[in-house]
Amino acid sequence: MTLFPEMIRDCCRYGIPRIAVEKGLLKVVAWNPREYATNRHRSVDDRPYGGGPGMVMQVQPVADAIKSARRMGGGPVLYMSPQGRRLDQAAVRRFAQMPHMVLLAGRYEGIDERLIEQEVDEEWSIGDYVLSGGEPAALVWIDALARLLPGALGDEESALRDSFMDGLLDYPHYTRPESIDGKSVPGVLLGGNHADIERWRMKESLGRTWQRRPDLLEHVTLNNEQQALLAEFIRERQLAESE
Ligand code: 9D3
């Protein structure tokens, strides 16, 4: 639900969302409340009661557009809003199970509060920074959901994602050439010992998570090998620091 439907349609022509749409796993329909505006100038906004800067999206066009969209299927109406709950991967996983949902993107100062009471099931933010409208947030949702739909990613990638490093930061990646300005690729990656490579990658993931996002480690349970790898990473870093 957006005053800029082309923003949504255009973005769905790239990357994983495009593949998911082409495979028939995902259907994205962009509805424009302006097409439901009944007043003479097809306006969708008006001045705020109480005064102040900016405009507010009116109830009628959005409410009618939502009713029309709901005829395509049930599912919650999710208002993209800085006042909402912050999106995280656990929520993305949960919504990826749902067959239908309506993402409502606001513009101007937002929508009339009565529209939230009447038509909105949940309010969701994508983070603590100020956007100029809800469309970038809706696109974040579409992208994050699309890649979780079964069959949207290659088998290799999805199997990896499910088990290997869930909840951790990624390990470093390298490709050719082997050496750039004297900086070489870590030797273990050139050796071809797959078990060693897996261990190195897990250790790097754990170490980077510990260094950069220690908050994430509170949400994962490390097995014995992972605990040992992280301890090794920390010990090596302390050694490097004392040199
Ligand atoms: C400068 C205007 N702000 C006054 C305090 C209020 C405001 C209104 C509309 C702030 C942002 C917006 C538009 N933002 C969204 O529609 C939005 C959003 C965001 O800004 N940050 C994080 N997540 C989201 S989801 C939708």
Task: Describe the model.
The chain has about 240 residues and is mostly helical. The protein folds into two domains: about 5-145, 3-Layer(aba) Sandwich (Alpha/beta knot); about 180-240, Trp Operon Repressor, Chain A. About 45% of the residues lie in helices and about 10% in strands. It is built from eleven helices and seven strands. It has helices at about 5-10, 15-20, 60-70, 90-95, 115-120, 135-145, 155-165, 185-190, 195-210, 215, 225-240; strands at about 45, 55, 75-85, 100-105, 120-125, 180, 185. The strands form three sheets. Strands 4-3-5 form a three-stranded parallel β-sheet, with helices on both faces. The chain has a two-stranded antiparallel ribbon with strand order 1-2. It has a two-stranded antiparallel sheet with strand order 6-7. Strand 3 (about 75-85), helix 4 and strand 4 form a beta-alpha-beta unit. Helix 3 (about 60-70) packs parallel to helix 5, helix 4 (about 90-95) packs across helix 6 and helix 9 (about 195-210) packs across helix 11 (about 225-240). The radius of gyration is 23 Å and the shape is elongated. It starts with a helix and ends with a helix. The model has no long low-confidence stretch (mean pLDDT about 95). It binds ligand 9D3.
